[in-house]
Amino acid sequence: MVGGTFGTWLYTKLKGELVGQDAQGNRYYRMKSGGTVHGDSLRKERRWVYYDGDVEASRVPAEWHAWLHHGTDEIPPEGGPAKHTWQKEHLPNQTGTDQAYRPPGHAFKGGARDKATGDYEPWTPG
Description:
Elements: H1 6-15, E1 16-21, E2 27-31, E3 47-50, H2 62-68
Antiparallel strand pairs: 1-2, 2-3
């Protein structure tokens, strides 16, 4: 049972209808009944993702994110939209790891910043 708790797995098996899968193996579901809600209701159909591996929100591609959050009702094509040459492969969220971005002068990078360029004049009261 990768990607969730026993409760999520059971709920998905009993009530979920598989609508698609992304390149990372994450599977996307909606309610079996089609999730139709009365036209005057503010509620929308229930949609969710069952992760293949680490449960990490940054692993949901943009096209599936739009579908999950009701930005579109179009289910993304299998394999996703055509990729541009300038697009990079997904990189998991690096926060909290040694690979996280740290700007120059950060304590974990030695704490030494570049010298000021001389155009800075500190404010003094009075």
